[in-house]
Amino acid sequence: MPYINVKITDEGVTCEQKQAIIKGCSQLMIDVLDKNPQTTFVVIEEVSTDNWGIGFEQVTKLRQTKAT
């Protein structure tokens, strides 16, 4: 019974994109581990860019710097 936790920043991911993530992760478990998709759980957590850091900096600030 795989449990897959996907964490992404909360930057406007659509319902269709989330469905594609769920489908892709489930298919990977089928292809690689021969797992049953009916017992494969995929959880997507959206994290504020203020709460996500890369290389000493918040993603929010990195995005602002990149935009300018």
Automatic annotation (TrEMBL):
Keywords: Isomerase. Gene3D superfamilies: Macrophage Migration Inhibitory Factor. Coiled coil: none annotated. GO terms for molecular function: isomerase activity. Its EC number is 5.3.2.-. InterPro entries: 4-OT, 4-OT-like_dom, Tautomerase/MIF_sf. The active site is at residue 2. It holds the Pfam family Tautomerase. It comes from the Bacteria. The keyword Isomerase applies. It is an enzyme of class 5 (isomerase). Residues 2-58 form the 4-oxalocrotonate tautomerase-like domain. PANTHER family: 2-HYDROXYMUCONATE TAUTOMERASE, TAUTOMERASE-RELATED. Belongs to the 4-oxalocrotonate tautomerase family. This is Tautomerase. It comes from Pseudoalteromonas caenipelagi. The lineage of its organism: Bacteria, Pseudomonadati, Pseudomonadota, Gammaproteobacteria, Alteromonadales.
